[in-house]
Structures are given as C-alpha cells and as structure tokens.
Amino acid sequence: MNPIKKDLFDLFELDKMPPEKGIEMLDRLANLVFQAVLVRALPLLSEEDLTEYEKIVASDDGGDILFKFLSEKVPEFNKIITEEIGVLRREATNAIS
Amino acid sequence: MKKEQIPKSDKTKAIEESIANVETQVDKNEELRRGLPTEKEEIIRMGKKLGYSDEEIEKLLKGEELPKIPENNTIANENLAQEQEKTGEKTPSKKTIKKVVKKTNVELPKIDNETKENKTVAEGKKDLKLEGKIIGDKEVKGEEEKALKIEKRDLSEVIKEFEKKAKDNLETGPLSERIRKGVLDGLTKWETFGQGEEGWKGFQHRMTKTFVNMALIGTISMLAMDQLVKNTATLGGGFASRLGMRLGFGLTIGSVVDVGGKKVSSEKLQKLMPWITGAISVAIATALSGAAAVGLAAGASAYLGYQASKLIKGKFVNEKIATKKEDALKKLYEKYRIDETVGKIDINHIPEFEKDYQKIIKHFENISIGGKLLVEVGKVALGTGVSMAAMGASGYAREHIGHHQPTVENVKENEQHQNTETINKEPEIKSEPETKQENVAPEKQPEPQSQPEIKTEAPIIEHKIITVEFSSRGAIQTILDMKEAIHNQYGDISKAPESIQEFMNTPATEEAIKLGLYNPDNPNGAESAMLLRGSTFILGENDVLSVHDIGTGEDHDLISPYKEASSGEVLEKYHGKMFDSDHSEVKTEDVTQTQGLQDEIINTPHYEPTNPVIVPDVADPNNLNLNIRQEEIINTPHNETGLQGSSSDIKHVDTTNTPHTTEPLSPGEAFHQVQTIIHSNINHIFPTEKLMGEWNSMKDNVSAEKLMEMYHNKELNDDFKPLAHHIKDLERISDLHPEAETLINPAESITNFISRALEKIQEIGRLNRVKL
Fold first, then answer.
1. Is the ipTM of this complex over 0.85?
2. pTM greater than 0.80 (yes/no)
3. What is the number of CB-based contacts under 8 A between chain A and chain B?
4. Chain B partners of A48 at a C-beta cutoff of 8 Å?
C-alpha cells in the first residue's frame, strides 16, 4: 500500500498485534490525537462552555459525554479531529516507513 | 526395534493438553485467527515464555513429545504449581498457562515482523545488500536511511517519542493554565474511561472507547463511531446469552464499518473485522470473570454479524447458520421421536411440537437477517410450515389436525412470495382457478422438508452476473448481445446450467418470442416490447435471466434454473408495453388494458404477453409515465399514447390523466401527503414482514449513496433492488441526488434522501409519478 494512504491503524500494524496489545496501542495513538484536538478545541469554547466542560471532566459521567459536548460546542470539531489525525499520520509516516 | 516410550510427567501431559486445547480453539475460530497470533506463534510464544530452548520448541511445533518445563525456569514451574493449586486444575487451562506466562514475566522473543523491527542497523544494511540495494561497500543514501529506520521501527518506541513530544508541547506551549489543566483533565477522563469497571457497563464503556479511539485515529468515520457507540450502548445485559443480540451487534459493526463508513476499503475491512472481533472478545472477557470462551463466542458472533451485513450485497451464504438450524430441527424431531421420513408423533405432543418448531424457525429467521438462508421461512408461511412439518413427519398426525392441513392456496400463496414481484403484486392470482386444486391429491401435498428446499438443494453455481443494456435495435439484438456476453463469461457453455445452455441454443428470434419480447402476430401491430433506454437484460444470481424495466423499476425473472421443475422453463413472459416499431403512428399497448385480457392475466400465473424489444430513444424519460399501477390501468379505458414518428422520438401521453400540477397544499397537508407516500411505497417495496425487518435493520445504517453505488456495481441483493430502482426514479424526477459524506456531515441516509426527494417532487406536483 502506498504509505501516503496508510492511516495510523496501518502504519502501526495494529491488526498484526494480539488484541490486548493492539487496543493498548490504539488507546495511546488516540490519546495523542485527542490531546492535540483538545489543545485546539478548548480555546474555541466560550467562557460559559469552558466552565461547563470543566464541570463535565470533574463529574462522574462517562468519558463519552466529553465527545458529545465537544462536538456540540466546538465549531468544526470533526474537522479539527481530521486535521490532527493527518498531522500525526504524517509524522508517523516519516518516523516509521 | 521398537523405541521405548519415555513416560511423560504430569506437567508435560498437562502442557500438551493445553497446547492441544489451544490448537482446537484456533481451529474452531478460523476467521478469528486472522489478526490474532497464529497457532505457530502462540506455541512459540508460550514455549519461549516457559523457557524452552529453540530446539525444544522445534520439537513442539513438529508435534513431538513435549519436554518438561525446563527445571532452570524455577519461577515458571513455581508459578504453574501455584496457579494449579489455586484453581484446582489437574490440567492447566489455557487461561492458567497465560497467567503463568504473564506472572513469569519472561521477555517475549520477537517473531516475524517484530524480529525484523529489532534488527540492528548493520543487520538492516545486510538485508538491503542481499536485496541488491547496496552495492559493495558503497551505500545508497536513501537505502541507508531506510536501513537506519529499520532499527527505529520499534513501534512502541515511536509512540513513546510522540508521547514525550506531546507532553513537552503541552507543558511549554503557549497555553493558559486553565486550558492546560482542561486538556490534562480531559485526557485523564478519557484515559480512565471504562477502566476497572466491571460487568456489562464496563464492557460497554470499553467498547465505546475502542470505537471512538478508532475514529480518533481515522480508521473509521465519525459516523461509524456514532452508530457503533449507539449500538454498544443499547446492548445492556444478556449480551452473552442472546445470540440474536450478539449477532445484531455484529451486524451493526459490519454494516456501519462496511457501508456507512465509506472510507473503509474492503482491503481495510479484511484487516479490521477480525481485529474488532478480537477487541470485543477482550472487552467481554474482561467484563465477565472467566469468560474468555464467551468472549471468543461473542467475537465470532460479531464476525458473523459482519458477514450477515454482506447479505444486502447478495454474496453471503451462511452455511453455518443453515447447518445449525438443521441440527436444531433434528434435535426437535428426536425430542418428539419423529422420524423424518416415516416417523410417528404422539398426537398429544402436536401443540408442543408446533411451539418448539416455531421457536426454531423464528430464531433462525432472525439470524438469517438478510434472508436467503431459510428458504422455507419465506416460501412457506410459518403456520403452514409448522403443520407441514408435523404432517410430513407423521402420517398419523396428518389425519388428526385438519385445521393445519396445507391448502393449495397456502402453498400457492407462499410460492408467490418467493416468485416474481409482479406476481406478488397481483392479488387476483391468489384466487387461482380451482381446477388446479383438484389436481392436487392430498397425498401428493409437498413434503414439508423437501418442498421448501428447492432452492437450497440447487447446485451451487458461481454467480456470474451479466448485464446487457437493451439495444435500440430491438430484443433480438439484445438477446444476441446477451449470448455473446454469456459466451465470454462461461467460455465452455457446456459448463453452464441447463437453462442457460437452452437459452444459448435457441435462435434469438425464437427466444424473443418465447420470452414475450417479440410478437410478430400481434393483431394491433404492436410487435415490439417498449422499454426505456437504460432497461437491462440480466443474467443474475443463480443464473436467473431477468429483465429490469427502468420505466417501472420492476425486475421480471424470465428464466430460472430453479423455480420450475423443468429447468429453463419460462417463468414469466415480458408483459409490459408494446409498440409498433414499423409505423409512423405508434400505439402503445398494454395487455392489461381490456377486461378480457385482464381476466386472462388474473387466471394465469404466466402473464400472457405479447412480444422484440425496441428501445425508444426517449429524450426525456420523464415524459413517459410508466409507473402506472395495475389498478389504474384497469380503470383506464384506453392507454393509448401519442407516440409519434420513429422509435427515436416517441412521445407519451400520460395515461393516468393525472394532472402534473396539484392544488397548493398547506405545509401540514404536503407533509402528510409525502409521509403517506413514503409509507405506502416502502410497504410496496418490502411487502413481507421479513423484508420489512431487513429494511428496518439497514435503513439508518446504509447511506443512500452507498446503496446506489452497490446497485451500480451489481453488488446489491435482489431484495433491495426495488429500493434502488425507486431511488433512481426519485433522483430522475426530483433532480436531487443523495448527499455524500463530508468532513462535517455523514452521508445522507436512505430515509432522509427519500423524504427530501419526495418533498421536492411534491412541490413540483409529480407525486403521482413516484407512487408505487
């Protein structure tokens, strides 16, 4: 496969790993993307929404609520994710292939 | 001289058994093996962990006697003993072995690609040298870099580097303290999501996290993520105990990733599905104590569900489910001591038997989802099926349960469900002449198990779907084109089914007459079938030869190797519009336009047609209202059309006399009108409960764009083709098209597109054109 077209799943060959290991690697890769997304997304929140965000992270609610909240409040949230995936993919391609 | 067997120690036997268990498990889960360690890898891994030497592992792989756990690996031995003591197992299970391996914490040897990753720069260079990429001692710069990267390619190390970099960026980047804290807290919340949670909730959270993470690395689309999360959340309890739920879940995964997430290529899917099933297994195994087996089963079910999702592509034959169903029925027969051929059944057990039989049929009907597996379910209504099974199994019972006696009407009705759509659309056919009923002696009623299995017993023939567009030169030319295509496809025509051979050996003109596409004797002079440009002649799945009339959106099976006793018999002649291609003023003729002919149609299962296809070159197909419903035709005294001139410039007068404009409606009325048509059309497209179930299971999971793509790629199951035809009509009339996925919005769902298009069509006053 053309390395340019490979996504992070392919680049890190998650499918070749035992599921436990693959899931661990997946979590770590996703965290990298998520961190980059948060760095870009949180400053876009209004004061009110940021306060709401802080309440959510401090609550006992599940982590999935975070995504629901951010996708509703952050303009072009999906686009930010897509761009950050692209950034990590390019860096990973350079490092691996 | 016989070699003396060395007595095996208990531990050796135990390990041997464990390995055997692993092997069996691996064999049982063939599909699951993809993406998981191979059998060889598993043995090597375990062997190395326990401290066997390479030679000993070689022996292990060859199936030779397993050496004892090396005594020098005291830790492994102690751990194994401890675990066995704890569990009380004489033979350590795979789980125990794994625990010991984990506890022993021996550094795993790298295998295959991992070994490659661990190569030193020198080794990497050596490889490249061997490959001729480094000549002599002079190294090519690019290749040198590549060689250097081989060492660098320790994936964990790469991630570690990225993590460190990300951490540094966060600490030193130009962020306010509040944002920095927000990022860290958010990350922590996400990292800990699902961790340490037990039971189903834990499973649900971990699976949600896994799917969201897959979306976060771009493996599945956000749309797919939403769907997966939604369905994971609805699982609740009972996941492990209810195959239907598991399958449903798997189906969701399959359909969403496969269809909804259009970014996922089939190549990727091959990698992804086993991986997802593995992930599910892990999540479930963690959720339930001692549930590794359950996890594997769930993974298998998810895979099965994924496969089931392929049903809409018309490619999936799930023999496993069919076999299981057969087994379940056999057990049922055994339970009631029914011999399948001459058995007896206690009359007192009939009600129970019926109940159990229904359970099995319903259960497997649910599993089949896409619906090609349990032919008898579709072919024979449930009640009839039950009684037929009972009667087929017991002559004694047959005499006593008259109310279950299958009637000819029952059988005919059920056959109609499986036969052509057109026949289904004719309610009158149910009142088939009673003379036929007289011909069927009660003793000769179809055997319950054999009658419905006409299709399943048919020889398995590789699907060769050939589509030929109707030629503007007529049906004869179209048939010649089809013959050529079949010849190209099959090569040796003797290998084709009998029905196809017969088609190939019949002269084209004769074939056109036989199929009703040409009727030189038509007294009205309308000798040629009139089909819109784009209508196709299809040699479809199972070598059924059919016509797709783009005007009406209907498919007509003309020849099938299965549906009739005599292979190749014409099932249904073309019965659509005919016109006189030789005259300047052309009349379209529909065989249904007179009451006399109508009666003839009603009283015969074969449409008494008329007629070679001339395909008029219609500049604006919208001008041809071919979506006339049968009852409308009956009530229309004349269906003459104002076809003028040659076939290339035929114009058509709307036979329904329905105005193309409607009185302005209030928004509420317009909405109601559109909704009524949606409801009515969907009921028309999916006429049976089973089909409706399939529709409900896929309507929000498959985008309209994807459906049409599958249709154009000829991947769509026959059951869904009428839906695709309907969408094509909607596109044509509304001039709207399904919206593709964007970064922000998911691809438009089928239901959404249908509503949107119908609203537009309502606005332009053409709803009558799309009412099915």
1. yes
2. no
3. 169
4. none
